[in-house]
Amino acid sequence: MNHFRYRGRNLYADGVPLATIAREVGTPTYVYSAATLRRHFKAMDRAFANRKRLICYSVKANSNLAVLSLFAELGSGFDIVSGGELYRVLEAGGDPRKVVFSGVGKTPEEIALALRHRILCFNVESAGELEAIAAEASRRKLRAPISLRVNPDVDPRTHPYIATGLKESKFGIPMDEARKLYKASLKRKELELVGLDCHIGSQLTVLGPLREALRKLTSLFRELRTAGIPLRTLDVGGGLGIAYQGEAPPEPRAYAGAVLRELSGLDDVTLILEPGRVLVGNAGVLLTRVLYRKQNQAKRFLVVDAGMNDLVRPALYGAHHELLPVVRQKRATETVDVVGPVCESTDVLAKKRKLPALEPGELAILHSAGAYGMCMASNYNSRPRPAEVMVDGRRFQIVRARETYADLIRGERVSRRGSRR
Ligand code: LLP
User: Which residues are catalytic?
Assistant: First the structure.
């Protein structure tokens, strides 16, 4: 469910015509719907209503401050993977005591920053990292709160680039090694063993693999408790998928049902969830304008002003984003490749789409671009990154200004002969 709908011929974001945003803010622009974000968060939270739980929104999916602050106001915690993400959470008014820190390559500086802000826990991904955290904690005479992220070795049946829970993956610690690490860490006063963690992959559209992983996870959890390790949180990661092109991923209630079934008997445990895409994916679109029509020997193209630097998912994963005209036209349809201006053959945003013929100057959106859209944008080809807009009811606000040419060269220096600087 989302709030991007046609009213008559015009496509709206909540109460605002997208054409108005294009006129006032320009294109390409990411547009987010506050109503959709709230609705998705509440649906997920409500699905776990009778349970001690903490939703830690996965910041990497969309790290705009306005998105983070909306979730913070709803009581969300945050799953971060860098010092930069912690900085954003703090700037957005998020509570560091509701932050879990994941990722395989935390630096000593990032660990120190997280310790200083008393985050809820580190999701630790290797024995080496555990030592680095222990060293920082003892230097500061603190106890670092620890969960080990285990690798349950299950196939999440998703795109191989976003599968993380297989034994070939760089993520997580093998279950056997984790068992030993917990036992060896129990007596260390610089470490506080608070929980157990796992995340098997993203864009999951079936629940079987998650169930399989949770069965392994809860069995280890129980075993560790029996061995006298007083764990109190169980983090099941994120990963719930969304519909990009007719997929039918489980609804939050079905997802919650599956998770809770595996957790039965662990009622005193705080369940931590790290959803990203499911909260923001369908709450955002990328608004773009057609620049040219082009026909070569074999194909017809629409060249638009957004490119793979703005939305990399099609080029990187072969991802599908629905393309919709902002003003619905009764025109003959044609099959086109929608491409951007970037000088790469993979700069194709939409392949072989059957669309009513769009003319230069007309607007379109790429749907479901709220997750892993702007946050993965780059300046490739020296293209300023898009603006971001949040729509709330009948009002909208620019929540990130479009980059300028000056932004492109910020921090760069030309060494001039004779210059002393
Ligand atoms: N927790 C951990 C430890 C993760 O690695 C991720 C995502 C999440 C939570 C959130 O997963 P979600 O609920 O969003 O599926 N750029 C890719 C997706 C990469 C996901 C990375 N990890 C894409 O555009 O599809």
Answer: 343
Instruction: Specify whether the CB–CB gap between 101 and 86 falls below 8 A.
Output: yes
239 ligand 1 Cβ < 6 A: yes
Q: Is the CB of 172 under 6 A from ligand 1?
A: no
Per-residue exposure over 47-75, b if at least 16 CB sit within 10 Å of its own CB, e if not? bbeeeebbbbbbbbbbbbbbbbbbbbeee
Instruction: For the chain, state the CA radius of gyration.
Output: 23
Q: Is the dihedral of CA 189, 192, 193, 197 positive or negative?
A: negative
Instruction: Quote the CA–CA distance of 311 and 370 in Å, as a whole number.
Output: 10
Strands 284-295, 363-366: parallel, antiparallel or unpaired by DSSP?
antiparallel
DSSP assignment letter at 208: H
Can you tell me whether residue 359 is helix, strand or coil?
A: coil
Question: How is 69-90 classified by DSSP, letter by letter?
Answer: HHHHHTT-EEEESSHHHHHHHH
Give the C-alpha separation, 36 to 134, whole Å.
41
**In the beta sheet, which residues pair with residue 413?**
none
**Backbone phi, psi, residue 2, to 5°:** -145, 175
The number of angstroms, rounded, from the C-alpha of 318 to the middle of its chain's C-alpha atoms is 18
Burial class (CB in 10 A: 0-12, 13-18, 19+), 327: middle
| pTM > 0.85: yes or no | yes
- Nearest-atom number in ligand 1 for the CA of 103 is 3
Preceding amide of 28 cis, omega within 30: yes
**Residues 173-192: pLDDT tens digits?**
999 999 999 999 999 999 99
Ligand 1 center from residue 26 Cα (angstroms): 30
Amino acid occupying residue 1: M
Name, in order, each residue with C-beta under 8 angstroms of 23's C-beta and a sequence gap of 6 or more. none
pLDDT per residue over 57-111, tens digit each? 999 999 999 999 999 999 999 999 999 999 999 999 999 999 999 999 999 999 9
Scan for tokens 């993520």, then name that residue: 171
Confidence of residue 418 (pLDDT cuts 50, 70, 90): low
Which atom of ligand 1 lies closest to the CA of 313? 24
Backbone angles phi, psi at 362, to 5 degrees: -80, 160
**HEC states along 292-351?**
EEEECCCCEEEEECCCCCCCCHHHHHCCCCCEEECECCCCCEEEEEEECCCCCCCCEEEE
